[in-house]
Amino acid sequence: MTESAGRRFAWVLFGLVVLLLGGTMVASVLGARTSGVGAEPLGGTGGEVVMVGAPGLTWSDISQEETPTLWALLESGASGGLVVRGTHPVTCPADGWLTLSAGQRASADTDGAQDCAGVPGVEVSGDAATVPGWEAWQEAADRRPLDSRLGTLTTAIEDAGGCVAAYGPLAALGAAATIGEVTPYAEGGLTAYEPGGCAVSLVDGGVIAGPADAAVLDAELAGLRDSLPADATLVVAGLADRGEQAGVRAALIWGNGVPAGALHSSTTQQTDLVQTTDLTATVLLLAGVEIPAAVSGKAVEVVPTEQAATERVDDLQGLTAAIGGAQALAIPVLGIGVVLALVALAQLVVTGQRTATRVLGLWAMAFPSATFLAGLVPWWRGSPAWLPLGLTLLVLAGVQVALALLGPWRRHPLGPPAVIAALTVVVLGVDVVLGGRLGLISILGVQPLTAGRFHGMGNVGYGIFAVSGLLLAGFLASLLRSRPMARRTAAALVIGVLGLLLVLVDGAPMWGADFGGVPALVVAVGILGLAAAEIRLTPVRALLIGGAAVAVAGVLMFVDWLRPPGARTHLGDFLQSVIDGGALDIVLRKLDQSLGILVRYPVSWVAVLVLVALVWAVASPDSWPGRRIAPLWQVPLLRATAVAVLTCVTIGWALNDSGIAVVGIGLAVAIAAAIAIGAAIAVPRR
Q: Where exactly does CATH 3.40.720.10 map onto the chain?
């Protein structure tokens, strides 16, 4: 490929990326989203709120034939998937009820040990009950960074002049006040419920282990529904996991004023996906009680739908299977893929097959975006699910590699990697801007079962997106700077525009809502831009770039903070915590989580060692590792691009909890690109 053809290719690829990302942003601002469009808030009817907790209840348990009552609630009410995550990876029934009570993740343990088989007993005296372990559980909660206050739900209702009734021992955990006492209380669960006693009634629906238990629950729900006052609202929720497998459970809200549709929460920003803490806020809203700050959830909304119940259940079962499958298959698929790739790479290097090595590097670059595109194919409906998922990933990555090698740009070492990087940036960027639906069910996505993120830019996605974006900017700038001292302005312009798009996608509160990644990107783009313009990086310029990074992050937080409290993301909430004086606690908690990963997961040290080795190699070209990658530097701006990438992942690691994931996946993308380029440098031009 001639120099002029390389420049034309660079401008065309740059234009396509800007057009696709910019156009998607405009469409998003105009209302084009994949989730939450048309969501309507619930309003309190003034009647009783009856919350039936059925830990383990899953959408696969519900059918028209076996659970007709639940099916009827679905037909005329609002439904969705429920993320039940408490303080442990698997949520026990008691943990789920305590999380409802606190409006924040909680658990029934004092030393981190779980006993999901045992149901904590209560001491009954007349129409009152006491939870014996309450004080110890609260002391344990005080030692955790989440600041859970058990009994928040009942305390808020009692402060407003109401009361919370409990029916059954598990319901007592949800209804107990801050001292662990419940009044009124009755044994018997669903069969003991009596209407009209309190503003809110919590009912123990029993633990659901399968369809047979769901059928028993359904029969008892029929009697309860018939006894409800006309203005009552019924909530049914599978508040805990089943056995040792975390998963998305079922949630239903039915009553006057509740439209038929899909549940939506501003905490997840995903239609059909809410959290247990959102149910706490929803119960308070329906009861006409102000939601206290201790409740981390938000009252759910409803997206009206005209779908038939069969279609709704099919969608919910698919979402449940996709999210659960993505988490269960992530480590096996990635582990096997890495091992096979390393074995293949070793074989190709030993045999000197440079063309095949180049293809392998490109395939590894394309794999991350393929895991997101796989969400367009219902692989989770296959049995076993890993087989259709694996085949889908192979095909999607292969298609990208074929596209990268199709045109005349294949003759330049940077041509195919630039195409793969552009595809990756567009796939992940468009998904985030439109609502993050693909990231929700990707093995490299946000992993919603951990309840860390449900939308926006997660750490793994950020590592892929940011590094691919920096590689693309560096590659295009290099193609434009094909002659020394030539086209500096064009190269710097391309880096600046792409950098702006990357920052907006990652940091804008309505899209990526990522705080820690923005400063890392701004600094990295600044370093790369100076190199493209052939301006030396001095200490003063480094300070100016750092100041710009802080300013950009601050502006994004301030913009989010200007929105109503219920509409803010964690960006605006953090600024509010700065105003309230609680920011230091948040920073220390995130630092503890980030450093704790290195202790709990020793394998994460591999990423640290690789980072150190690469920094050494890039900073010291004459060192042993530096000489191994020195041939790459014959490509203009490639060393500056490597410096920008290493800077980005290092700062991203420091500013994000679980930030080591940024290092691991980001370096994997960069190394794959280096392999493809290194193999192509010695490939004869055709």
A: 48-299
Amino acid making up residue 307: Q
Architecture, CATH, for domain 48-299:
3-Layer(aba) Sandwich (3.40)
Task: Return the structure tokens found at 38.
Answer: 């048309």
Distance CA 254, CA 47 (A): 13
Nearest CA to 367 out of 438, 453, 464 is that of 464
Sign of the Cα torsion 88, 89, 91, 92 reads negative
Nearest to 506 by CA among 553, 566, 442: 553
Size of the chain in residues:
686
pLDDT of residue 682: 58
Q: How confident is the model at residue 112 (pLDDT cuts 50, 70, 90)?
A: low
pLDDT for 571 equals 77
Burial of 489 (0-12, 13-18, 19+ CB in 10 A): exposed
**Does residue 234 contact residue 222 with C-beta atoms inside 8 Å?**
no
pTM of the predicted model as reported, rounded to 2 decimal places: 0.91
Among 661, 660, 650, which Cα is nearest to 614's? 650
> What residues are paired with 129 via a beta bridge?
124, 182
Nearest to 613 by CA among 627, 605, 625, 621: 625
- Specify the pLDDT at position 146: 77
Give the CA radius of gyration of the chain: 27
Cα separation, 94 vs 312, whole angstroms: 29
Distance CA 576, CA 200 (A): 31
Q: How far is CA 280 from the centre of its chain?
A: 21
| Tens digit of each residue's pLDDT (9 = 90 or more) over 267-322 | 898 999 999 999 999 999 999 999 998 999 999 999 999 899 999 999 999 999 99
Task: Give the pLDDT score at 685.
Answer: 46
